[in-house]
Amino acid sequence: MTTRFYQLTASEFDWKITEGKTIKAWGFDYTFPGPVLKAKKGDTLVIRLKNELPEPTMIHWHGIRLPAAMDGTGDVQRPIQPGEEFEYRFVVPDAGTFWYHSHYNETVQMERGMYGALIVEDENDPVFDAEKVLVIDDVKLNANNEFKKGNAIQRWIERHDGRQGKTILVNGKEKPVIRINAGQTERWRFINASSARYVRLSLSGKEFRIIGTDGGLIEKPIEVNEVLITPGERIDIIAGAFEEGENFLIETLAYNRTTVVKTRRQTLATVTVRETKPSIASIPAELRKIETLAATGAAVNRKISFEVDMNFKHGVDFLVNGNMHDRDKPVYVDELQVWEIENTSMMDHPYHLHGFFFQVIEENGKAPLYKAWKDSYNLKPKSKIKIAWIPDNRPGEWMYHCHILEHHAAGMMSHFEVVDPKNGSQRTTHHHHHHHHAM
Ligand code: C2O
Ligand code: CU
């Protein structure tokens, strides 16, 4: 087990998204996205963040099962002020595709590029000829390639739909060309870092196999010809082997999530298949065993609801359990949680739980297609999911929320405490902090 040190600087810089288009990005280490951080399962990561932005920031390590104090939210740390440094230090206990992103003034900071991939490898990972990390985002720019707030109507639409921009980026570039050699098989790790865009991933209709998601490998490869990746989610696929000259597009297909502005089919990237090369890839039929936490039909010990309320005050409110910035009951270390999460609204919401993986054991009464460790899962309109998870011994303040950033900011979130029964609740002075924008 190694300790790996990273130094990151958060700042504003010019970033060229394509020929003739440069934006004023905010990000880590002058790249958009920030650098890919790599570690091996069990390593300790030490990340020193220096804030050179004109406003505070914090980093959330999305999907990592770390101690509460390292979760990078306003519940567990003081925002890092301009000019200050902060050191994050934690063990990465699971292999998989994770990511890090600002958890402060997210609708601005993440939009401008404050995110990056965090890849945790395992010595037992399947062997590929190569691997690619593909982080998908979109940005909303005006005619001068600036990030600008729109007029009142556009702002209302953004509050309702979440912000979707017309400029789609893969690893910070517009429609990049991706190269792969014919005859070779690669692992492509997709991360949806966009504020609100649902990516319905397609490789020009070709079949491909999913091998992993939020919490690492699934049990066996699943063959599909498209997959939904909601904001915050990750999907790992087997890409290839392709034949020479078999060029195609990576696309996102139309998805209707009951927004004012409809999402159309769009190109994310172009894939060029180059000359044939030999392959050393070896992907077992059984990738991993995932023990079942609770059976379909298990008794529910908590009910949660995600609600959208149309009213005269804000036009539209985003609520959890009837409240903006809700506070949910504590959970106790090692007590199995079976939560029923209902989406009473007509819109989709990507549910995200900080710091712990869950298994979806039912969706509208049925077992899902395959078993997986998840930290983000789409709540379809007027539907219910049942999740099972165990709060392991990492007491402290945690949260769950909609990962459409504008919904989260509008209050579609809930705080809760994981309590170690030997020590009791450690909550002290958090009571007035729930309504400012440092979430
Ligand atoms: Cu990636 Cu609080 O979320
Ligand atoms: Cu939402």
Q: What is the strand arrangement across the widest sheet?
A: 11-10-9-13-18-15-16
Q: Pairing-aware structural class of the strands and helices? A: mainly beta
- The tally of beta strands, per DSSP, is 31
Shape: globular
Q: Report the C-alpha radius of gyration, rounded.
A: 21 Å
Q: Could you give the distance between the termini?
A: 33 Å
Question: Which terms would index this structure?
Answer:
31 strands; 3 helices; 3 domains; binds CU-O-CU linkage; 439 residues; binds copper (II) ion; Immunoglobulin-like; disordered C terminus; seven-stranded mixed sheet; six-stranded mixed sheet; mainly beta
What can you tell me about this protein's structure?
- The chain has three domains: 119 residues, Immunoglobulin-like; 145 residues, Immunoglobulin-like (Sandwich), CATH 2.60.40.420; 136 residues, Cupredoxins -  blue copper proteins (Immunoglobulin-like, Sandwich), CATH 2.60.40.420.
- The chain has three helices and 31 strands.
- Strand 15 and strand 16 form a beta hairpin.
- The chain is globular and about 60 Å long.
- CU-O-CU linkage (C2O) binds next to strand 5.
- The site of copper (II) ion (CU) has 5 residues, from loops.
